User: Fold these one by one.
Assistant:
Number 1:
Amino acid sequence: MTHHRILIVEDEIKIAELLRDYLKKASYAVSSLHHGDGVISLVKDNPPDLILLDVMLPGKDGMEICRAIRKFSTVPIIMITARVEEIDRLVGLELGADDYICKPFSPREVVARVKAVLRRVHPEPDTKRLTSGPIILNEETHQVTVGEEGLKLTPSEFGLLKIMMTHPGRVFSRNELINKVQGYDFDGYDRTIDTHIKNLRKKISSRLPGQEIICTVYGVGYKFIEPPP
C-alpha cells in the first residue's frame, strides 16, 4: 500500500517534529522543510499529497509560497499560523489554501484535518460521476469539466461543488457546508465558506459567463442551480 506523502513546512523544529511523529503514527510518509526557500522547487520536482504550510517562515513566507504553488498545482494546502486575526485567515483562503489551523493546536486535530482533506482528494472507489448541464464532476478522478474544458479546483472547492451538485436546488447553510466539506465539526467562522464559494463562482463564471450557478439565499446559505445543457 502506498502511503500518502505529507510535506511539513515549519520553521519551529519542535512543532515540525511533533507533527511528523503524529502523522507517521497515522501511517503517513512525512518530510519537512524549515525554510521558505526551496519549497516551490521541491513541490514541482517531487509533489507531495498534502502540504502543512506555516505562514511565518524565513525566506519566502507561507502566503507567497501558497500563491506560487497555486499557479501550477492543486495539491491540498493546510496553512498553520500563530496569527488569529480573521483577515490573515481570509487572505490565505483567497490564495487557494484548503484549511487553516491556528497555534496552539492539538496534533490530533491536525491529523483529523489531514485525513478529511485527503478523503476529498482520494474518495472511496464506489463514488459516482455527476452531470449537470455542461458541468461534469468525476469524484474518482477528482476532475471537473465544463463543456470540453477542465476546471482547476482546490479540494475544498471540489467538495463544495460536489455536495451542491448532488442536491441541486437545495439550500445549504454555511455551517452545514463546513461540516460536510471539511469532514469534521469546525468551530471557526462562516467567512471560510464564503471565501471558497467566491473562488468557485469566479472559476465557473470563466467557463459559463452570465450564468448564476451558485446562488446566495440571504440569511440562509447557498444553493446550486442546474445550468442549461
Note: Residues 191-207 form the longest helix (17 residues).
Number 2:
Amino acid sequence: MESKASVCAHAACERAHSERNFEFLAEGPMSEVAPLFGAHKERLWAPGWDPCFIWPARAEDRPGMVFTVSGQHGTAVWVNTRFEPQDGHVQYAYVLENTMSTLITLLITPRGECTHVAVSYRRTALKPQADPWVAHMAELDTKAGDEWAAQINAYLKAR
C-alpha cells in the first residue's frame, strides 16, 4: 500500500508540459547545413547565441558536448545527447536553473539542393512557478521556424 506522503508527493509533482514542432527549408545542401546545428557552429548564424563550453573545454561540436548558456532567466546547462549531422540527427537536453527542462530534437534531410529541418521541443516545468513559463515558451516555439529559417538562410546566402 502506498503511503500518504508518496501519494501527496506524486500529486505535487504534476507540472506543465508542452510539445511543439516546426519545420523549415534551409537553402543549402545537407552536408553544409547539418553541421550548423552544433552548439559551436550555431554561433555563425544565430545572433546572441554564445555557449560556454565545459566539455570539451575547447569549443568543438561533437557527441556528448556539455555547455552552459546564460540569459535573462538564468543559466541553462545543456548536454548534447546525439550529434550525427552526417545522418541528419541532432539532439540536446537542457535544464534551466531548476525551473524547466527542455529536449530539442532535429531531423535533417536533403531536399534537392536544399535541406529540410524538422525541430521538436519538449518542455516540462520543474516547479509550480514555472508552469506559465512553459506555456509562454510553447507559444514562442510554435513561431520559431520562420526565425530560424531567416537567420540560417541569411548566413548561407552571405558566405
Note: The longest strand covers residues 100-111.
Number 3:
Amino acid sequence: MQPCLWLDDLFVQAPMRGMGVGTALLKYLAQIAESTNCGRIEWTVNTANAPGIAFYEKQGARILENIRVCRIDGDGIGLLAGKYSLSQ
C-alpha cells in the first residue's frame, strides 16, 4: 500500500486567481507526491463550489461523488474519548 498526500485546504485569494497560483501549488504537491512514492493526492471540495470543481477537473482530478466527509468535533470528541456519557 502506498502513502497518500492529503491536502487540507487550498485557497487562492480572488485577486490572484487566474494567474497560475493554484496550478503551481498543485504541481508542487504532485512533485512531492511523486518523490515520496504517494499513490494519490486527495482533498475535499464543497459541492456548491462549481468554479473550484471545474479547476480541479481541469488539473486532472476525478471528483468522487460517493465519498462523504466524516467529522467528529466538540462534544462528540469527548463522548468518543469516554470523557462523559450521553446522560450527563
Note: The two ends are 42 Å apart (CA to CA).
